[in-house]
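Why does residue order matter? Because the sequence determines the fold. Keep that principle in mind as you read this record.
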Amino acid sequence: MGRLIVIEGLDGAGKRTLANGIAAELTARGHSVARSAFPRYADDVHAELVAEALRGRHGDLGDSVHGMAVLYALDRRAAADALRADLRAHDVVLLDRYVASNAAYGAARLHQDSHGDFVAWVHELEVTRFALPKPDLQILLQVPTEVAAARAEHRERTEVDRRRDNFESDAPLQQRCGKVYQQLAAEDWWSPWVVVDGVNHVDFGALVGQHVLAR
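Structure:
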């Protein structure tokens, strides 16, 4: 059975770059890697509805913290069997966002911390009720909010179809979300976490050797 590794962080933190570096290092060491990212906008109707709601469609759906969280959760539930199959077939399954994103962003929208009702509700829904595959490791790619925002703005200017949504352009929300992420990581919420500096150069070899492949 392979290891499930999750990369978490703010919009613009550099999660895709980190995933690319980890995957390249693992492949160079002879390990097979499967990758996925949530929400699965192109593959799941729940994620498609999320994207539309974040851009103002579907009435007041985007304003409902719990309503949006359920859509995110249903996207992952629909992917659960495929994740389990990937874990059976590969050494490492690498995810860009997972359940902790739901917990962090929803809590931040409600001005709660990691000990609030919302994080507990997400755990009950996705971990207990949906029984999603548990990560072996969650990596928090930590960057200052202003750095993440600048990267997200650059991505919006330079990449086709990467216009920022309502969450990505809300600076106070991103700041609160960063704090919830830090709490989740400090508490090893659901599974072990490691915090990686997303500003300075990441030593992919050390990260893979010390954490990703550790048993």
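The chain has one domain: 3-39+82-123+134-212.
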